[in-house]
Amino acid sequence: MLHQHAPGATSFIHAKAHRHQPLSEDERARNRTKSKVRAKVEHVFLVIKRLFGWSKVRYRGLAKNTHWLFVTCGLTNLYLARRRLVAGT
Predict the structure, then answer these.
(1) What is the 3-state secondary structure (H, E, C) of the chain?
(2) What's the whole-model pTM score?
């Protein structure tokens, strides 16, 4: 169904094993690669939601929420790079 609507798109959904048909080593390796990327991306969302309070969006207006999100993303980048920044000084 994905290829009907977007022929050039790639699916990043994990391959799933079935009762009498386990995953091949190639499928397991592809799943591991997808999991590594997903873990790196999800860690950023954890920091944004837990440390900077984006678990609930306050309805202040679109412009204010957008500015708050940009500031939060910048602070998240600094927070995630804090060890490298301190070690460089």
Answers:
(1) CHHHHCCCCCCCCCCCCECCECCCHHHHHHHHHHHHHHHHHHHHHHHHHHCCCCCCCCCCCHHHHHHHHHHHHHHHHHHHCHHHHHHCC
(2) 0.64
Give the Å distances, CA to CA, from 16 to 19, 28, 70, 89: 10, 9, 37, 47
Query: Tens place of pLDDT for every residue, the chain, 89 residues?
Result: 667 888 888 778 888 999 999 999 999 999 999 999 999 989 999 999 998 888 877 777 888 888 888 999 999 999 999 999 998 76
Q: Tell me the C-alpha distance between 86 and 60, whole Å.
A: 35
Range of the domain at 43: 24-87
Instruction: Report d(CA 61, CA 17) in Å as an integer.
Output: 46
- Say if 16 falls within a structural domain: no
Domain total for the chain? Answer: 1
